[in-house]
Structures are given as C-alpha cells and as structure tokens.
Design goal:
7-stranded mixed sheet; 2 domains; 13 strands; 344 residues; binds magnesium ion; Ubiquitin-like (UB roll); flat; 14 helices; 3-stranded mixed sheet; 41% helix; binds guanosine-5'-diphosphate
C-alpha cells in the first residue's frame, strides 16, 4: 500500500511524513525531491498470534509513504517537473492532503481556503490529462485508427464530472475502470485530508471534497514525539492530553479510505498480517500469498482472531471444532486467521 503526501508548500507535508515515519520507519531515502518511508502497521493481534503459533517472527503489513515536495499550482510553468512527480504518484493507492492550521511567519491559517484551492488544482490537473487524451483519441479516430469506444465514453464521463468541479472518485464505474488506471488521475484516488494543527490552534470543521476523510494532527508535536523512545513519548503525550499517537490514527484512516481489512496466517516461521480489500473472496485472498495457492485452491480453514485468542491454541480450536472449512467464495473478514489448503 502506497500513500502520497501532497499539499501547498509549507503546509507541513514533511512534518507529517516525519510523524508517520518516526520510530516505525523502515529504510528512508531522499531523491529528486521525494522521500519515502516504509512504515510497519502496528497491530496488537500479531504478538498474540506469535505466541499462539510459537512463531519465530512477526511480519506486519506495511504502508509506504511518499513525501513529494511539489506545488501543483506550478503545473503549467514547470511541466516536466510536474509530469515526473505525477508519475511518481501513479502507483499511489491513496493521497494524503495536508492543510496548514498553524500560524506561518505571521500569516494566520485559513485551512478551508487552502483545501478548496488544492481541490481545484487536483481537478484541473485531471482535466488537463482528460482533454489531452481525448484530443489525441479523437484525432486518431478521424484518421481511421482503432480507438476504444469505452475509453472515450469514460473520458467524456470524467470530463463532465471534472467540469462540474467534482472528483472522479465519486463515480464507481471510473474507480473500477482499467483505462483510468493507466493515467494519474489525482481526484480518482481515495483522499485523506490532514488538518495539520499547531500546538495553540483550534481544530476546525472543514467542508471536505466528496468522498474525503478528515483527520486532525498536531504535526510538529507528533513528529517530535515520533522520534523519541516510546516510553518517553507516552509521558509527553499524557502531559499534552493527546489521545492517540498520530501514526496509528493515520494508518487506521488510511485503511478506512482504502477500504482494507487484514487477515492473518500463523506457523512456526512467522505470524503475518495480510491487507486485502474488503469483500475479497477466499480464493483471491490465497492469491495474495502466492499465485499457486490461488490456482490450486481447495479450501480455507478459518477461525476469527478473537475466538482463537480465547481458546489459546490452534489445536484446542481444532479439537473443539471451531476451525471452519470455507470454500472459494467465502468473503474473508477482518481478523480471520486462515490456513489455505491447495494442490499444485
Ligand atoms: N507551529 C507549527 N509549525 C509547524 C507544524 N507543522 C509544520 N510546521 C512548520 O512549518 C514549516 C513547514 O513545514 P514542512 O513540513 O517543511 O512543510 P512542507 O513544505 O509542506 O514539507 C516548518 O517550519 C515547520 O516547522 C505544526 O504542526 N505546528
Ligand atoms: Mg517538504
């Protein structure tokens, strides 16, 4: 799972990135104005499963955050640069949009105005792509070339939404469309707005773009805490009356906008979390582990995490008949602990 962090300059993108990466960061690099961090998704269920299965290690799900220092408003002046960064965003599964809610060099915050103008930039960026593509396809069609009618139809649909100022993510057909995946339509991606709030500033209600989610984070404070040892950070957290660390909150919201759940596998080697889209069937879930498992799928042996935890051991669960056998069309639930049976 990849999430791109964008926003106006000086809104605190890199600060939010730091808050997200902090202690949990895997390797981190900076190249051509892009920083990346692989963040392990904290999940309390994993250590419990490690114990139950006597697993040597834990393999959590990961999220990759990209911090892109690019200014969409410079889209037209700096086309090459914009194209390069848009390309970096292409594989992103979702966007975090950071808006400033702290005083910057004497300039008071106006998060609603910033958010509205950013939203407009996303729409304009998408509209430019749609129009360029439509122009090209129509030219090709006039020359008698082969064009895909479905693609043209979807681009027209996209254009009418964008011209009305609406993000592409509101249209399920476009969300599922293979054509749309070939481009970097920013307004098609699930959106999490981060209200980056100063220590002294009030958290405000924002009018969000359609389909967006909001989370308020005291960015600078959280970034500093993220770099402290956890015990020390906890003391500060209590002093400042901060309810929950920014990272788990960000990750939870990221799972929410992406509509992801986790299933688990366990054995002597590892206890592992596997993120999948909600609604995934057992056979496709097996394919997330290995394509052979999907192809040769026989059945899934399933027990919900909470039940397994209460019973204390997999053997006990089996003896008690609590491990269910499920077929390929079973819809995997969050927290399912699964053993896939397959033949190759
Ligand atoms: N008071 C306050 N300042 C912040 C906060 N987040 C970022 N800043 C400051 O705003 C400036 C820009 O932050 P930065 O993360 O570099 O923004 P970017 O350009 O969007 O990456 C820096 O001087 C930060 O220290 C915050 O939550 N509170
Ligand atoms: Mg930055």
């Amino acid at each position: 799972m990849k999430i791109g962090i964008i926003g106006l300059p000086q809104s605190g993108k890199s600060t939010i990135f730091r808050a997200a990466a902090g202690q949990f960061a895997g390797h981190q690099e900076e190249r051509g104005g892009i920083s990346r961090a692989v963040v392990k998704v904290p999940d309390e269920r994993l250590p419990v499963l490690q114990k139950i299965f006597g697993a040597a290690k834990i393999v959590p799900a990961t999220v990759q955050y990209l911090d892109l220092s690019f200014d969409l408003r410079e889209r037209e002046n700096r086309q090459k640069e914009t194209e390069r960064l848009l390309n970096e965003l292409k594989p992103a599964d979702a966007l975090i949009l950071v808006v400033r809610n702290f005083e910057l060099a004497g300039i008071p915050p106006d998060p609603q105005k910033d958010l509205d103008s950013l939203h407009e930039e996303l729409i304009l960026s998408d509209l430019a792509i749609v129009e360029r593509r439509l122009e090209k396809l129509e030219k090709e069609a006039r020359k008698g070339g082969r064009v895909n009618e479905k693609e043209i139809e979807e681009l027209h649909l996209a254009r009418s939404l964008l011209e009305a100022g609406r993000p592409l993510r509101v249209e399920p057909q476009l969300r599922r469309s293979p054509f749309m995946r070939g481009y970097t339509f920013l307004s098609l991606k699930p959106l999490l707005v981060v209200l980056n709030t100063g220590e002294e500033n009030k958290i405000l209600e924002l009018q969000l773009p359609e389909g967006g989610e909001l989370v308020a984070i005291k960015g600078r404070l959280e970034a500093d805490l993220a770099e402290m040892p956890p015990e020390e950070a906890q003391i500060f957290r209590e002093e400042y009356g901060l309810q929950e660390a920014a990272l788990p909150l960000l990750i939870r919201k990221s799972f929410k906008i992406l509509d992801l759940i986790c299933f688990f596998t366990g054995g002597e080697k590892e206890a592992r979390a596997w993120p999948i889209p909600r609604g995934t069937k057992a056979q496709q879930a097996a394919g997330v582990i290995h394509s052979d498992m999907e192809r040769g799928f026989i059945r899934a042996e399933v027990i919900p995490f909470e039940e397994l935890k209460a019973l204390g051991s997999y053997q006990t669960a089996q003896k008690a008949g609590r491990v269910r056998l499920e077929g390929k069309d079973y819809e995997v639930q969050d927290g399912d602990v699964i053993i896939f049976r397959f033949s190759v």
